[in-house]
Amino acid sequence: MKTHSAPTVHIVGAGLAGLSAAVRLTAARRRAVLYDGAPQAGGRARSFFDSTLGRTVDNGSHLALSGNRSLLSYLEAIGARGSLTELRPAAFPFLDLRNGERWTLRPGGLWLFDKARRVPGSRPADYLSALRTLLAAPSASIADALPPSGPLHERLWHPLGVSVMNGALDRSSARLFGAVLRETLLRGEAACRPLFAERGLSAALVDPAVSWLERNGSTLRLGSRVDGLERDGDRITALSVSGMRVPVGPADSVVLAAPAWISSRLLPGLPAPAAGRAIVNAHFRLAESPSDAPLLPGGLPFLGLVGGTAEWLFLRGDVASVTVSDADALADRPAEAVAARLWTDVASALNLDGPVPPVRIVKEKRATPDQAPAEMAKRPGSRIGLENLVLAGDWTETGLPATLEAAIRSGERAAGALLGARGTTFSRLGLFPAFTLPRRGPI
Ligand SMILES: Cc1cc2nc3c(=O)[nH]c(=O)nc-3n(C[C@H](O)[C@H](O)[C@H](O)COP(=O)(O)OP(=O)(O)OC[C@H]3O[C@@H](n4cnc5c(N)ncnc54)[C@H](O)[C@@H]3O)c2cc1C
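Above: inputs. Below: predicted complex with flavin-adenine dinucleotide.
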C-alpha cells in the first residue's frame, strides 16, 4: 500500500461517523484516508440492489427530523442539501391495526389545544410528562419517567420510544429519549418535520460525501478491514489493514469510527456499551411498475402502525417497507415466517389482499448499541488519552441516542478534537451558509 509524506488522518470505518469526520477534516485542509472492511460505504445506513425485487432498497428505512442540525449541516457541507425531502408541515400519521382507527399528530403552535392534532383520548396536560424525561436521573429508564399506561403511552410514547431507542421502554435511557424530545418536539413544528431519503440512503447521505471527499483530495479504501493498531506509549504508530502494515507517521492521526464491539477489540480495555437489539425490515414489491403502486392515506410517504408487529410503513415507489425495532425474537425466525407475519400488517394498512408479494427481509442483528442507562454510562468521549487517536461513532458520548444525528455529531466532534476546536460544528466554523431543503408542499 502506498504511503504519503503529507500528514494524513486515517479513518477506520466509513459509516456516517467516519464520513462526517472526513468531511470536516478535509474542509480544514487535512488529507483523510478512510478504510472500510465492507464493499460499500455507509455502514448501517446504506442502499443495495435486490435482484428478487429488481429494486434498490435500504438496509432499513430511516427517519430523520428537521431538528437534526448536524445531519443538515453535513448535507450542506457535501452539497447534498437537496437529497432529503422534508414533509412540511410536520405530520405523523398513525393507524391502529386492531380496529382501523387513524389519527395524525400535527405538532406546532397551539396543537395541544386542538383535539384533531393530538393523540385521540389524550389531554394537553398528559404531554407534560415528557418533561420528566428531561429531568430524569442518569440511571432512569423511560418507563421510570413516563406514566405506564393510557392513550398517550400506547399511541405515542411507546411506539416513538421503542423506535428511537431500539429497546423496550423499561430498559432504555430516559435522558437520551428526553434529549431527542428537546431537540425536536419541544422546539416546535420547524424542528420536527420528517425527512426522507426518497432515492435511498446511499444516494442521499453516502454517495455525495464520497464524491465530495474524492474531489477534495481524500481517499476511500473499501474492502480494507483494519485488523490491528500498533501502539508505542500513547501514540498509534501503524494500522494493520487486511494484514498489511500501514505506518502512521509522527504528524499523522487516527479516527476510530468503527462500531463499539469492533473498536473495543482494536483497543482492548476501551470502555464501550454492549451491542444492542436487532432491527428487522421487510421490503415488499407491490406492483410490476412504480406507477401502479398504491398510495398511503393523504398521499403521505409513511405511516406509524400500532397494535401489530410492524411499527413503521414507508412507501417508496412500488416498494412498501416496514420496520420493527427491538426485534431479536423476530430476527431469530426464518425469513419466510417474518415475511408472512409482516405482510399481514402491510396488507391490512394498505387494504390489499392476496399472497405475500416478492419480498426481501433484512435483519440487522446489532442495529444499535444497548441503550440501557448502565450501558450508556460506559460511552467514552472522543478523546481517550491517546495523543493521535480520537473516537467517533453513534455509540460514543454525544448526549443523544444512537442515530444518524449522533453518528454525524460524533464525527464532527472527533474531527474538532484533532483540529483543536472541540465541539465546533460545520456551520459554526462558518464554512457553509444556512441550508434550505427542497419542500414537499403543504399536505
Ligand atoms: C435497520 C436500522 C434502522 C435505523 N433507523 C434509524 C432511523 O430511522 N433514524 C436514525 O437516525 N438512525 C437510525 N438507525 C441508526 C443509524 O443507522 C446509526 O446510528 C448510524 O448509521 C451509525 O453510524 P456509525 O458511523 O456510527 O456506525 P456504522 O454505520 O456501523 O459505521 C461503521 C463502519 O465501520 C466499518 N467497519 C467495521 N469494522 C471495521 C474494521 N475492522 N475495519 C474497517 N472498517 C470497519 C463498517 O463496515 C461500517 O461501515 C438505524 C440503524 C439500523 C441498522
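Confidence is low (pLDDT under 50) at residues 422-443.
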